[in-house]
Design a protein that fits this description.
The protein has 19 helices and 11 strands. By secondary structure, it is mainly alpha-helical. The chain folds into 3 domains: 237 residues, Lysozyme (Orthogonal Bundle), CATH 1.10.530; 78 residues, no CATH class; 40 residues. One of its GO terms (cellular component) is membrane.
């Protein structure tokens, strides 16, 4: 059911990272007669991951007032650097390793500091998600699945692969890393238009020459990365203390082929649910759907615990299944009663807002019953499930309106209306004055 994937450590790479100040090319080790003191691959290994990143810097530097501004912002916020570094410690080794495999500049591993502060749960007002901040459309362009059960824009492996592929594509278009980065933030079409405009005016088309045509966010984007790059290159110069990050894999990937509750997976791995989610932030629901592409990430020692505990697990791995809403009569309360749970559990499992009901045609998660105890959720359901909400109807109020009034109630209401009308005529002026006073106070507060 679960197969542990091997972890390839940096020590097994067949190349040596270039020394600081080189062009960034990778030097190959040529087999030769063993010298008196045989060097091992580990002898070339940086002890600290920040050092490994420094040796692969390859993007030309820029130096302007915006860079200085952002250096000041970061160096005067040690708490921000500490929090970001703590989050980055889980993912940074993987990102650096993938950059080196593709022969890309290693300072690109610092880009998520700019995008999301290495928070894979980050979500922007423009609907960008994950530590690389993909918007839905670009995510789909790079085959990042986005459905009711998972959003691969937040997945560590999937989003990193997509981001590096996108950056490679942009570099191929512009032949220049600053422009590729600007396009990553602003869109390649906008950068192309800016280039054509400067070309028509006989002006240069490098990043700094195009900066005035860019929105403020993009104009600051490359200087922000340069600022972080400067601080990582020489933290002491800026009075920054970088928390060390070990130059070794933080996690390993486990293939899975059957459904499993997120809480059960965390329990088997002997991890807290929060730590499990930090490595597997793409899962939207309390059940992880099993398919050939699904992987869960675990620290190496916890992956071993997971395998051991799984072999001893004698219960169902998943307690959830799906149910399709067929009509308005299927309220959350009635579904909770039918599936032996509470409305609060169903709302929480499906992220149903308060005072909202589920529209007909929607698919929701419900607890398994005996007839579905050993059945996984079908792939077709996973790919096509939709969930839509509408304002919850107030059945109690509707029922009160629907009840006809008795003859006595009608006579009582008429008498009350008649008395109110007489009082209104006698005290009309006084009533108007009483109403005007609070309106005046309200206007003063508003001003």
């Amino acid at each position: 059911m679960f197969l542990a994937a091997p972890v390839v450590s940096y020590a097994n790479d067949v190349s040596v990272p270039p020394q600081a100040g080189t062009s960034g090319a990778v030097a190959k080790i040529t087999p030769m007669s063993p010298p008196q003191s045989v060097l091992k691959a580990d002898d070339f290994k940086e002890a600290d991951l920040w050092g490994r990143i420094r040796t692969g810097y390859a993007i030309p530097d820029i130096n302007n007032v915006l860079v200085d501004k952002h250096v000041t912002w970061y160096r005067t916020r040690p708490d921000h650097i500490a929090r970001t570094s703590a989050r980055a410690s889980r993912y940074l080794y993987h990102v650096v390793q993938e950059l080196e495999k593709r022969g890309m500049p290693t300072e690109l591993a610092l880009l998520p500091i700019i995008e999301s502060a290495f928070n894979p749960q980050a979500y922007s007002s423009a609907n960008a998600a994950g530590m690389w901040q993909f918007v839905p459309g670009t995510g789909k362009d790079f085959n990042l699945k986005q459905n009711m059960f998972k959003d691969e824009r937040r997945g560590v492996l999937t989003s990193t692969d997509a981001a590096l592929s996108y950056l490679q594509k942009l570099y191929g278009m512009f032949g220049d890393w600053p422009l590729a980065l600007a396009a990553y933030n602003w869109g390649e079409g906008n950068v192309q238009k800016a280039i054509k405009k400067n070309q028509s005016l006989g002006k240069p088309t490098d990043f700094e020459s195009l900066a005035d045509l860019m929105p403020a966010e993009t104009r600051n984007y490359v200087p922000k990365l340069q600022a972080v790059k400067n601080i990582i290159a020489n933290p002491g110069q800026f009075g920054v203390s970088l928390p060390p990050i070990g130059n070794e894999a933080y996690f390993t990937a486990i293939d899975k082929t059957s459904d499993i509750d997120l809480t059960i997976a965390a329990q088997l791995a002997e991890l807290s649910v929060d730590e499990f989610k930090a490595l597997n932030p793409q899962f939207n629901r309390p059940v992880i759907i099993g398919d050939e592409q699904t992987k869960i990430l675990l620290p190496k020692e916890n992956a071993e615990k997971f395998t051991t505990n799984l072999a001893k697990w004698g219960q169902s791995l998943s307690t959830w299944t799906t149910h399709k809403i067929t009509g308005a009569r299927e309220s959350i309360a009635s579904l909770a009663s039918r599936f032996g749970t509470t409305p609060e559990v169903i709302r929480q499992a499906n992220n149903i807002p308060a005072k909202s009901s589920v529209r007909a045609g929607s698919t929701i998660l419900v607890p398994k019953i005996s007839t579905s105890a050993n059945i996984d959720i079908a792939e077709q359901i996973v790919d096509n499930a939709v969930l839509a909400f509408e304002a919850e109807r107030s059945t109690a109020r509707g029922a009160r309106r629907a009840q006809p009034e008795s003859r006595a109630q009608k006579l009582k209401a008429r008498a009350a209306n008649a008395v109110a009308e007489i009082k209104s005529r006698v005290t009309g002026k006084r009533a108007k004055a009483m109403v005007a006073e609070p309106q005046s106070r309200h206007r003063k507060r508003a001003s």
